[in-house]
Design goal:
By secondary structure, the chain is mainly beta. It has five helices and 17 strands.
């Protein structure tokens, strides 16, 4: 039996492993801005004003098939599990080349005895058009299990759910996982935002990714110069109760995620890069 309060809270926080691994996650509209305990407490952070005029240029190939990033998921000082972001080659329904994007999260062996997390999401993503063809989500969190699939028809501009629901979508729409990889390609205005169309939970909306500033991050995988971004969805999002997410991307041609921090109702979750496998395809 778990007796310590931090350990009990860690079990509850493990449900957030999937959300952090999936990226992006979203801030609730009442919590826009930068969380003081996430950013202001870090002396190395250089915040950038919106009128700075500094823009990180667009990147032509930030990742390749075969890229695999392994992360440790921490609830405070407690190691709760691991997460992976992976890219594989795939062929689109129309025969064009693409990527199979995968995010996985697992509780470690200790916590799995009490609250097992085995979550996986996948996105079938058009490499050249940079839009989603299919999104699937398979979640196992304790006794809770669910599976969701959305197919995107770029010709009819429709999202077709596994239960038969069909909804209109804008051209070149992103899903909950491809939105993160799409962001890695974009020019990033320091102090500004990147906005693009996103579809999830039966809604198509603009997704804003705020570019906060620069920071240097030490991880077990190395030390990296980074730019920090924060995905925002003003109509609400996955994290409730003023939850929010800040992501540290490398300030280079890879825009690789090395750190994610989220404040949730009962503390904070950190996802820290442990191991890198570079893609070759």
């Amino acid at each position: 039996m778990l007796r310590s309060r931090p350990a009990k809270l860690a079990l509850i926080a493990l449900g957030g492993l999937f959300l952090l691994a999936a990226c992006p996650t979203f801030a609730d509209e009442d919590s826009l801005g930068v969380a003081p305990d996430t950013i202001d407490a870090l002396p190395s952070v250089v915040l950038t004003s919106p009128d700075s005029g500094q823009v990180l240029p667009a990147v032509s190939q930030p990742f390749r098939a075969g890229e695999s990033l392994r992360f440790s998921v921490q609830y405070g000082i407690i190691h709760a599990g691991s997460a992976w972001l992976e890219v594989a080659s795939a062929t689109m329904p129309d025969g064009r080349p693409g990527f199979q994007l995968t995010a996985r999260a697992e509780s470690n062996s200790f916590f799995s005895h009490f609250y097992k997390v085995r979550n996986r999401i996948e996105s079938l993503w058009d490499r050249d058009g940079r839009f989603s063809w299919r999104y699937s989500e398979d979640r196992h969190e304790g006794k809770y299990k669910t599976r969701t699939e959305i197919r995107f028809d770029p010709n009819r501009h429709e999202a077709i759910y596994s239960n038969g629901d069909t909804l209109p979508i804008p051209p070149n729409v992103q899903d909950a996982l491809s939105a993160f990889y799409f962001t890695r390609y974009q020019p990033l205005p320091l102090g500004g935002s990147v906005v693009f169309d996103y579809h999830a939970s039966h809604k198509s909306q603009p997704l804003e990714v705020r570019v906060i500033g620069r920071d240097r991050v030490d991880t077990p995988a190395g030390t990296f110069e980074c730019v920090m971004v924060e995905p925002l969805l003003r109509a609400g999002g996955i994290f409730k109760n003023k939850g929010r997410l800040v992501i540290w991307l490398t300030d280079d041609e890879r825009r690789m995620p090395v750190l994610m921090k989220s404040r949730v109702l009962m503390g904070s979750i950190s996802v820290v890069l442990q191991e890198i496998r570079n893609g070759s395809g």
